[in-house]
Amino acid sequence: MTLSETLLWLCELKSPIGDEEHICDEVTKRFDDVKLAAPIRRYLNSIVVPLTRGTGGPHVALVGHLDTVRTEHDGEPRIEGDLLYGAGSSDMKSGLAIMLDIAESDFRPNVDMTLVFYSREEGPFDENELGPVMDEDPELSKVDVAVCLEPSDNRLQLGCAGSVHATLTFQGRTCHSARPWEGENAVHKAAGVLTRLSALVPEKQVTDGMTWSRVTSATMAKAGRARNIIPDTFEINLNHRFGPASTLEQAQAHILELVDGDADVVFSDLSPSALPRRDHPLVKALAESGVTDVMPKQAWTDVARFSALGVPAVNLGPGINSQAHKKNEYTSLELLNAGLKIFHTWLERIATASKS
Q1: Among 67, 91, 153, 302, the one annotated catalytic
Q2: Residue 183 class from Cβ within 10 Å (0-12 exposed, 13-18 middle, 19+ buried)?
Q3: How many domains does the chain have?
Q4: End of a domain among 271, 300, 319?
Q5: Are residues 139 and 288 in the same domain?
Q6: What is the CATH number of the domain that holds 204?
Q7: What confidence score (pLDDT) does residue 188 get?
Q8: Residue 226, class by beta-carbon neighbours within 10 Å (0-12 exposed, 13-18 middle, 19+ buried)?
Q9: Is 121 a catalytic residue?
């Protein structure tokens, strides 16, 4: 298959989060005729593919998730001119297509390569299958560099922001809304926190010469039993985003300081940040291999899992970042082909460097 045909094939394999078994089976079959350094290792609906070994070059992991968000689309996956339409076409089956193309071609630079196709990325941190895959796999924690092929318009995105969610629960007492003095309005009790929250401005955090914004936002709220009842509970979800300059513990402390005891706080989805590692030789080589820009990653990605183990990890993919999670998602075939060229250039460059 050509690169665009592979991407179309991947988009035709529907894989909304939680339903990845079929696509995992089909991707595994694609390797039946590929010479591998060792058998594929499967963990639930995720696979680790040892492509090459014993080259004398660095050990590189190319990493991509199989699942997509559950969005609606007008029509089946298709190509119209330069655009390929389909769920996951940008996020991130375009990255998976590059991984498969590298595996199925004769392109074999002197680099030890491992390909990781994993499931459940689009959900909570604790349900993401890359976590248990990395815990159980004997090699992934020892690679020299990892690239997550998330959509980035072929821009090299270094590190990533951390993310913490917190549920704030304000307690009150119900009563009839005609006589509110007989109860306590839980919504009104949130006034202090909401005032402090609305006064916050993005705080710049600099790590390794790159800038992240520390921000806190209310993203969901729930209260009320009926229109004529004073609410006895009011729940707000806060999402706190922070750069590599902050730890998870500091992020949680920031939220507790903001709440100042006005509500009960329960933390969830504790996702750490990742260091940019912009001066690492393998990262510098990638920055010099034709990427369209080098920038910090303000959102969270799975590079953080590698970073936590001391493995340099970056984000780079040919998908269109602004198309992620959109109805009628599409990507550019020109970007797709340019992305493959970047990876070829980089892998050849670090293979040559390893010989010198």
Answers
A1: 67
A2: middle
A3: 2
A4: 271
A5: yes
A6: 3.30.70.360
A7: 98
A8: exposed
A9: yes
Query: What's residue 109's pLDDT?
Result: 95
Q: Is 67 a catalytic residue?
A: yes
Asked if residue 144 and residue 33 are part of one domain, the reply reads yes
User: Is the backbone of residue 212 left (phi > 0), alpha (psi -120 to 50) or beta?
Assistant: beta
The rounded distance, in Å, linking the Cα atoms of 130 and 65 is 9
Residues 35 and 62 in one domain: yes
Q: Residue 209's domain spans which residues?
A: 162-271
Is there a single domain that holds both residue 96 and residue 173? no
Boundary of a domain, candidates 271, 298, 322: 271
- 266, 283: one domain: no
CA–CA distances in Å: residue 66 to residues 20, 107, 244, 302, 352:
7, 23, 27, 13, 32
Calpha distance 5→1 (Å, rounded): 6
Under-50 pLDDT residues of the chain: 356
Overall pTM surpassing 0.85 (yes/no) = yes
- Residue with the two structure tokens 């039993």: 225
Q: What is the pLDDT of residue 352?
A: 77
Cα→Cα distances 46→267, 304, 307, Å: 28, 18, 20
Alpha carbon distance 109, 92 (integer Å): 25
Chain center to CA of 204: 22
Crossing angle of helices 21-30 and 93-104, rounded to 10°: 20
Residue in 91, 101, 112, 121 annotated catalytic: 121
Distances (CA, A) of 81 to 84, 95, 330, 332, 333: 8, 20, 12, 9, 9
**Residue of 144, 267, 168, 149 lying closest to 221 (CA atoms):** 168
Q: Are residues 149 and 44 in the same domain?
A: yes
65: which 2 tokens?
A: 């998730």
pLDDT at 354: 63
Peptide bond into 210 cis (omega under 30): no
- The secondary structure element, H or E, covering residue 68 is none
Q: Is the domain of 170 the same as that of 265?
A: yes
Residue bearing tokens 């995720």: 46
The pLDDT of residue 355 = 57
Model pLDDT, residue 125? 87
